[in-house]
Design brief:
heterodimer; A: 647 residues; B: mainly alpha
């Protein structure tokens, strides 16, 4: 414990003063307001906006991105220690000692997310214009997407945990609406509900964490909490850390709250690309990195984060190997890659920067991969079974090349993004030392090999080999409105990792917020070489299994591992057995007790009162003489009693 | 010699006659008369005890009872007349609408 405190003291993270924004940054609320206005126009405007609604829907994120880029430019003109700027939009809660300003914080970390969200978001909006062109509800789709952007920007810009929580819930709502966008399909409606409920479980953790902060420190602002946290007891800090981790697990689909992400693929593909790959699901990583001053003080909370990350990265990768649905294979991969980020975040200052670097690079290549998958799905009459693809490279060359670049990036072939951003994570895990470091590093290393295997499998089954198409499929290249975002994302996939990691660009930029790793390694490390060897092995294995052999149209039975992975490693079964069934029994028991016990008591009492009063009212016969007799009897009894007492 | 006990005995007899009359007779006028009998039995008791104790309280109360009884008869007979007009009957058992 003392060791961790000392190492935390060496970090500048909590000590950066937040200055008031000046110049163009004063209008930082525009970042949120633009997409929010877009959502309002599209959702409140109704059918009148049908014909031009998508143009508004695209313009708002683009304008937001342009503004974000200008704010970024202004930030670069400040010296490193003065880059954290805040604006207070209004006083959100003003109750005695409970003061929560709705503040927006523009600092190095949030601007990274702003640029990723609005940049990749704009590209995906443009793609969606083409992808959703035949959907009669396209306007509503763009309304929800803009709503998502506004909520996500609030999440990353909020300068206190309450604003973050508001954004957190907002993205959950948008995610729910968009997964269930085709709500007339039962699978989509169920998936939306499942995602919402799984997220609620995580949200309970986050809200409890925020309540605990307020109870302990009397504030929920980042600066307030981070300055108070060193004086808190170790138990409290660990508890807050674990509660935040629970929140992060829900939003980022980490074990044990992972099961919703695979079903979330029921949503339209641009949604999968933006929300369930590039941005929203990385909110958990943002939460951990933003709360660095808390996690720096608790080694227990950090190791929990790292273990969750390591387990999920293997979990997701194994699921990705067995799925025949191209989107679900990519969803498994998303879980796995976010597992890498969580693992890195769990390493403390040694990994925060690499988590964010991988997050940014992942935003590019995973969005690109999903858009490629969407493009394929669009042209194959909504078919997603990769066993029905094959040989698409010839007919969809642009999709093939852009998807291929994303593929090379995710498996980590030098000099593409993943090579630069994934290897530092593996290396940092080994550098942690001890048994835990070795285990985490090995998990990350094996994950890299499995990643190479399942991504090669996706690549081969979709684009190479024989054409196993359904009859009536006439795929051809997507229109430019869809391919151009894919091309831009492919460029990003290729270059982002190198740009961020080489010359320590991201490290120097983010250092004041997240702290700097104690030791830096070069580009070529032992673990990096190991990862490359495993990569080659994974690609070769996939080539032997799917490239040289013919891919059967119906899936073979497969090994027990394959069967388990097809069923999401029994994630749903575990939830059902551990939570759903006992929960159902509990509700049945409560209902029984309520009906028989509580209601029974109340009903019996009411029936007894009703029955007896029904009999008693017969006394009111209406005959005056019987009343007179009663009075006489009463009077006689009274007099008799008095006499008796007297005597 | 007529002792107070005789007066009290008479009072009791009158009261019992009145009570039985109220309970067994159906005609409202007879019921009224029986009530008057009971009131007068009470008056007799009051006056007797007043004489026994050489106090005026009982006498005064007897006057009050008479006044109240007169007022009661006025109201009662008025009600009775209107019931008779409405229902063509003076039986107290026929006026039994106020019941469960």
């Amino acid at each position: 414990m003392t060791g961790s405190v000392q190492s935390a003291m060496a970090l500048p993270a909590a000590g950066i003063p937040t200055l008031h924004a000046t110049g163009i940054q004063q209008a930082a609320w525009l970042l949120l307001a633009l997409p929010l206005a877009g959502a309002a126009i599209l959702l409140l405007g109704g059918k009148r906006t049908n014909s031009w609604g998508h143009l508004v829907g695209v313009a708002m994120p683009v304008l937001s991105f342009i503004y974000g880029a200008m704010a970024f430019g202004q930030m670069l003109s400040y010296p490193a220690a003065e880059r954290s700027r805040e604006i207070v939009v209004y006083q959100f809660i003003n109750v005695d000692r409970f003061q929560v300003p709705l503040g927006l914080q523009l600092d190095q970390l949030s601007i990274c997310f702003v640029l990723l969200i609005t940049g990749v978001g704009s590209l995906i909006h443009i793609f969606a214009v083409g992808y959703m062109s035949h959907d009669p509800e396209r306007r509503r789709f763009f309304g929800y997407m803009n709503l998502f952007l506004a909520a996500m920007l609030l999440l990353v810009l909020g300068s206190n945990y309450l604003a973050l929580y508001a954004g957190w819930e907002g993205v959950g709502l948008a995610s729910y609406l968009l997964i269930g966008f085709w709500q007339y399909r039962p699978a989509a409606a169920v998936a939306a509900k499942k995602a919402f409920i799984a997220n609620r479980v995580g949200d309970v953790g986050l809200s409890l964490g925020i309540m605990l902060m307020f109870a302990q420190f009397g504030t929920v602002t980042f600066t307030g909490v981070f300055s108070a946290v060193p004086s808190a007891s170790h138990g409290v800090v660990t508890a807050i850390g674990l509660l935040l981790l629970l929140g992060a697990c829900g939003k980022s689909a980490q074990v044990p709250l992972q099961s919703w992400l695979l079903d979330a693929m029921e949503g339209p593909t641009p949604v999968s690309a933006l929300i369930h790959a590039a941005t929203m699901v990385t909110a958990g990583v943002y939460l951990i990195v933003r709360s660095a001053p808390i996690f720096n003080l608790s080694a227990d909370a950090r190791i929990a984060v790292a273990i969750v990350g390591a387990v999920t990265l293997l979990f997701g990768a194994i699921i990705g190997c067995a799925k025949d649905d191209i989107k679900k294979a990519l969803a498994g991969s998303t879980m796995s890659q976010i597992g890498y980020m969580m693992l890195a975040a769990g390493l403390g200052p040694a990994g925060y920067v690499f988590a964010i670097a991988h997050l940014l690079a992942h935003g590019f290549f995973k969005a690109g991969l999903f858009l490629g998958a969407g493009s394929v799905k669009h042209e194959m009459n909504e078919e997603v079974d990769m066993r029905r693809f094959g040989g698409l490279a010839r007919v969809m060359p642009i999709t093939w090349v852009t998807f291929g670049i994303g593929y090379l990036a995710i498996i980590g072939v030098p000099p593409f993004s993943g090579f630069f951003t994934k290897d530092p994570i593996i290396d940092a895990a080994f550098a942690k030392g001890g048994t835990s470091g070795a285990l985490l590093g090995t998990a990350a290393l094996i994950g890299a090999g499995i990643t190479a295997f399942y991504m090669t499998r996706v690549m081969i089954m979709t684009f190479s080999g024989e054409r196993r198409w359904e009859e009536g499929a006439h795929p051809h290249e997507a229109p430019p409105v869809m391919t151009s975002p894919m091309i831009v994302l492919a460029i990003g996939s290729a270059a982002a990792g190198g740009f961020l990691i080489l010359a320590n660009r991201l490290l120097n930029f983010l250092g004041p917020v997240t702290g700097v790793p104690p030791t830096l390694h070069g580009i070529w490390t032992k673990s990096g070489v190991g990862a490359l060897i495993l990569l080659v092995a994974g690609v070769a294995l996939a080539w032997v299994m799917y490239g040289r052999r013919e891919v059967p149209v119906t899936a073979p039975v497969g090994s027990p591992v394959t069967v388990a992975a097809r069923k999401d490693l029994y994630g749903d079964a575990i939830n059902e057995g551990l939570l759903m069934r006992p929960g159902q029994w509990l509700t049945r028991l409560s209902v029984f007790f309520d009906n028989r016990g509580i209601d029974g008591l109340v009903n019996t009492l009411a029936a007894a009162t009703g029955g007896s009063s029904g009999r008693l009212r017969r006394v009111q016969s209406g005959f005056v003489r019987s009343y007179a007799l009663s009075m006489l009897v009463g009077a006689v009894l009274l007099v008799g009693a008095l006499l008796l007492v007297r005597l | 010699m007529v002792s107070p006990a005789h007066f009290i005995a008479l009072s009791v007899i009158l009261f019992v006659i009145g009570t039985v009359g109220v309970l067994v007779r159906r005609n409202a006028i007879v019921v009224f008369m029986s009530v008057e009998l009971m009131l007068n039995a009470a008056n007799l008791a009051f006056v007797t005890f007043a004489r026994m104790h050489n106090a005026l309280d009982g006498q005064v109360i007897a006057f009050f009872v008479m006044v109240v009884a007169a007022a009661e008869v006025v109201v009662g007979l008025a009600i009775l007349t209107s019931i008779f007009r409405a229902r063509r009957s003076a039986s107290v058992d026929d006026a039994n609408l106020m019941k469960y």
